[in-house]
Amino acid sequence: MNNRIKVIGATDYIFCLLLALAMVAAPNYIESGSCDFSSSYLVTVLVVFFVLSVINYFARRLIVRNIISPVYIGEFNGLFNAWNKILHSKHNLWLFFVIILLFWLPIIIALYPGTLINDTWGQLAQFIQYFYKGNHDGVFSNHHPIFDTLIMGAIITPFGEKLDNWQLGFFVYSFVQELLTAFSFSLTTYYAHRYLKLKSGYVLAMLLFYALCPIFPISAQTISKDALFSWIYVIFIILFIEALRTQGRVFSNFKYDSLLGLFAILCIITKSVGIYIVTFSLVAVCLFIPKYRKYSIATLVCSVIIALGLLTGVKRTLNVAPSGKQEMFSVPFQQTARYFKYHSKDVTKAEFNSINVLLDGKNIGKVYNPTNADPVKGYTDRGNYKQYKNYLVSWFKEGRRHPRTYIAAFNAMVSGWFSFAEYDPLMSMDWHNLLDPKLIPTSAAVRQGEFRKSSQAVQTVFDNLYKNPILQLLLSYGLYASVLPLFITATFLRKWGLEEVKFYWLSVIPLGLSILLGCWLAPVSTLFEGRRYLYPVVYTIPLMLSLCLSIYQIKYGRRE
């Protein structure tokens, strides 16, 4: 390999160091809620930093080498010839879709009728109360995106209410969602081939990853607001990246503007943090990409106005109760609880009174769980805006007094995202305390006959795969929530000296916001259903990696 090729840069070393610091601390925070930053910790960090740097170096070196000197495939010629026929077929998008779906079918069948998360039982109850029981007095809650509740309820409840077959309704909804998710993945693969011009081997690896990695079909069969949002988000990201690839020229196409606007609207109305991800991402495009700026601004403004108008109109029509403000305070409340646990004698009377209005000041130190905010924040809002303002004043004072306690509380909350704990999407409906037996029979949450055995078999196989040291990384939180995002970010932030990719770094914005707002500020990570918060990141990681590979191809492909 030419010695003039710079395989890794300073950004890689910085991210490897940050990742080592977090990964070494994460297991300690998960197990005990704290981490001893001793000499042993620092030595371990140095070792992990070295290993990560070596892996990063050889991964990037392998990519460059493969682009400059393609790997000889020899006896696999027949396989690749068949693959190239599929790849270059005029129906390749639909062939990708069929391939993904065929590999998913055994899991889809085994997990019949799909898996409802606990929140979904509550959403269905709200829908039934309003449309079937005639209770219109603030039944709906904005704790769940109202459009998600309406979509799930409209598809599922007729099967239960009219046909007395709730599980058939679950399956119909789940299967439609699986079809749409598989299509979004086939569209991603198609985009990588058609527009990013990825080499056929990379496109094949991408397709097989979507088809064979069990995380994807198991996630797609979960009946949850996150699974609904995530396939929509995939298509939005494809359209967003196309704006970066064409450096804004695509905004001159009204069809593109309409599609981007449509999926921006869908992202906003189906996910609470969607408004922030979409708005900040498109604002960045408007600010940094000058070509056809008036069209990009128009797309942004129209999308946000229409989405907010739809949300406002529907909420008023259905008398939707506002969600509790406590949902946005998971991290601050955890910091306060940890402060009460370890520094209760330092809490002034005024601070206690302002905090006790929102939280149970006498018990938050006792119920504090370092990795789960729900016991502290609860599920209902107890205060008004003025009381939250008074709380924040006390929160700030206590943070200045014991900043290390606040840092430790934050580290504990995000530790799961840096761990190698098993990332297994939900396959069981055992936790369903929001199921109201007066509205939906409890039998609806129990898989019947052979499907109970087959669902347990899927869980067992997944657990066994995770126990295999070779596959453990592939099925862990840390790979998707920290390792690959940092690898991708380091790639985008390098100075490539290429005019074609000068705006690719903007793709870090939706990726970063999805992790920061969707995961880090969530009430849980590895506990209960916390894995669902990572769906949008997991779904779009292959696309982000393909964008990284396209940079390498542009940079080093010219050397062939």
Automatic annotation (TrEMBL):
InterPro entries: DUF6020
Sequence intervals crossing the membrane: 7-26, 38-59, 93-112, 170-190, 202-221, 227-244, 256-289, 295-314, 470-493, 505-527, 533-552
Keywords, comma-separated and alphabetical: Membrane, Transmembrane, Transmembrane helix
A Pfam family: DUF6020
Protein name: Conserved domain protein
